[in-house]
Amino acid sequence: MKETDVQWAGEMLAKLEEKVKAELGRLGDAIPYMPHDGKYTDVAQERGIDWWTNGFWGGLLWQLYSVTGEDVYRDAAVVQEKRLDEALYRFRDIHHDVGFMWLHTAVAHYKATGDEQAYYTGLHAATLLAGRFNTVGNYIVAWNDNKPGWVIIDSMMNIVLLYWASEQTKDPRFKTIAKKHADTVARYLVREDGSVGHIASFDPDTGEFLEQIGGQGYSASSAWSRGNAWAVYGFALSYKYTRNSYYLMLAKRVANYFIASVSRTGYIPRVDFQAPEEPKIYDTSAGLCAACGMMEIAKWVSREERQFYEASAVNIIRATEEKYANWNMDEDGIIGGATEAYHRPSTYEVPLIYSDYFFTEGLLRILGKEFPIW
Length: 374
Ligand code: GLY
Hints:
The protein is mostly helical and 374 residues long. The chain has a three-stranded antiparallel beta sheet with strand order 3-4-5, with helices on one face. Strands 1-2 form a two-stranded antiparallel ribbon. It starts with a helix and ends in a 7-residue tail after the last helix. It contains 14 helices and five strands. A hairpin with a 4-residue loop joins strand 1 and strand 2 (139-140). The site of glycine has 5 residues, from loops.
């Protein structure tokens, strides 16, 4: 990592801490997602306690606790975790995003402090995820809503919860499920050119692959950039936990496609790399997530390749900060320019909590001080 980039990341981290403390002062126990008129509301009341992003604020706080040791971050993160207990007990709406929700809260709490209850909450969430495995099709079903045959690329981040559970319990079942699922995703969603589909549909009774389906990108055959980012980071993480070089090769293939695509647009990804030229809509969350994935890849490749992935990641993070950071301490949300979905114009280029999370993780990765949420 270049010294000038490390120095820059240190300066950004100081500003970020100041802003997060200001936000904490306004939030109480609310779970933040997208500010309205510059102020966070409680997304659990608007979208439910099971909303897939409900862990990210906790994860961001654990990152800051790990690097500073300040109790204020730990205490606020635990408040977020306790609120999510309701989702576990309610069960009804639980989906595959238990990884996003509890890796950032209970599992992070356990890793940071050894808290016993947090450990069991993490294992409970992992067991729910394992229970979604379709043994005929070898996939983890993503959602409910009468869609027992749908798999989505985002799942590559969630299965880290299974790798963690096997490490902890020395029981290979969780890891075996994660690997089988990763193989299915690789086969049916990662394309030859390094682009990635969002949804694969299977017959849940026979396990037969049916088709790729369009989700949050432009179309079924296009390349939703956040989905591509989930693949970059997710396959790099599957390599980290299995050391199967096939996963690293896939992570690099998708990362190379991603880097080639963002090099045309100032290192800010469009929402979909294969959408029509107009309208031009961007998604900072895709870039920041992919950048963290590229820095994970950099850990596992040769020195020559490492520089390429690190430099690409830094280009993305710095370009995003320059264009989209909001350092006004009186307004909530740090990184703007995130987009939920191509066909959801009400969320075009807004601040979303996962952009802030991946910006924080990205800064800490540049500094070599990230906390291992994943
Ligand atoms: N996991 C849902 C999304 O990326 O929007």
